[in-house]
Design a protein that fits this description.
Layout: E1 8-14, H1 21-24, H2 34-49, E2 57-68, E3 77-88, E4 91-100, E5 105-117, H3 118-125
Antiparallel strand pairs: 1-3, 2-5, 3-4, 4-5
């Protein structure tokens, strides 16, 4: 595993009705849902480190902090960038920022993940 602070990745999405708070059950307005924003942030963290994990390893989310600052309606484009800031053994700490096509910060926060051995992790689920 060769993980170093500074690894970055981004994901981009055009918000659809399926991404809205109404559809996800997290609110009653047709804008990007906060749980969807978090999912995009996690996707960016996975993309940042996934190719550098060892054979049989994966990462799992363990903690998240999200500030959702600006509403994005369906049809709006959001780009989420995540950067690995800290590696402490198997614990990975990221910061992320989501920006819309006008450059407004839609949201930001932190995501922590843990590197695990995939088969061992899954085998503990069946107990």
């Amino acid at each position: 595993m060769e993980l170093t602070p500074g690894l970055r990745a981004e994901v981009e999405v055009v918000v659809t009705e399926a991404d809205t708070a109404v559809r996800m059950g997290s609110g009653d307005v047709p804008v990007l849902a906060t749980p969807r924003l978090l999912a995009l942030a996690e996707a960016a963290t996975v993309k940042a480190v996934g190719p550098r994990l060892g054979d049989g390893e994966t990462s799992v989310g363990t903690r998240a902090e999200v500030r959702h600052r600006v509403a994005t309606p369906a049809g709006g484009r959001v780009t989420v960038t995540a950067e690995l800031r800290e590696v402490d053994g198997r614990r990975l700490a990221f910061v992320f920022e989501a920006v819309d096509e006008q450059g407004a910060v839609v949201g930001d926060g932190r995501v922590e993940r843990a590197v695990v051995e995939r088969e061992g992790f899954l085998s503990r689920l069946s107990r």
